[in-house]
Design a protein that fits this description.
By secondary structure, the protein is an all-alpha fold. The protein is 65% helix and 0% strand. It has one domain: Cytochrome c-like domain (Cytochrome Bc1 Complex, Chain D, domain 2, Orthogonal Bundle), CATH 1.10.760.10. It has 5 helices and no strands. The longest helix is centred in the N-terminal third of the chain and has 27 residues. The protein binds heme C. Heme C binds next to helix 2, helix 4 and helix 5.
Length: 107
């Protein structure tokens, strides 16, 4: 009985921290909106070899490089990945939020 209570408490805590994380990201910049506007054309279709959002196999070796490397590559460009997805009007924070949104399903 006591163990069940602990499990329930742990599950509630995990849920609360996930919500807090989501809220923090959205407070800075709307990653989903940036993704839909600037990243989706390639990252939903896999155009030019872009890793598709939610494709765990495609993202595993990239996530291993660390989120800071992914931020840098998204901002400065990486092979066929254009700097800021070609939208130079985006702030670094907006691009980072879009990266967070992109890797969120596979983290
Ligand atoms: C014109 C197509 C295109 C657009 C638009 C685009 N990407 Fe990419 N992206 C790519 C391609 C292609 C790769 C794979 C590059 C490689 O691994 O050689 C990539 C790779 C990445 C990676 C992984 C980098 C790494 O180090 O493995 C991230 C993160 C990323 N893109 C983020 C973004 C974000 C954020 C946006 C929108 C702001 C965006 N991309 C828009 C084509 C695009």
């Amino acid at each position: 009985m006591e163990n069940t209570m602990k499990l329930v408490a742990a599950a509630l805590l995990a849920g609360a921290s996930t919500l807090a994380f989501t809220a923090t990201v959205q407070a800075n910049a709307d990653g989903e909106a940036v993704y839909n506007q600037a990243c989706m054309a390639c990252h939903m279709t896999g155009a030019a070899g872009a890793p598709i959002r939610g494709d765990a196999d495609a993202w595993a070796p990239r996530v291993e490089k660390g989120i800071d490397t992914l931020y840098t590559h998204a901002i400065e460009g990486f092979n066929a990945m254009p700097p800021k997805g070609g939208q130079m009007g985006l702030s670094d924070e907006e691009v980072k939020a879009a990266v967070d949104f992109m890797v969120e399903p596979v983290m």
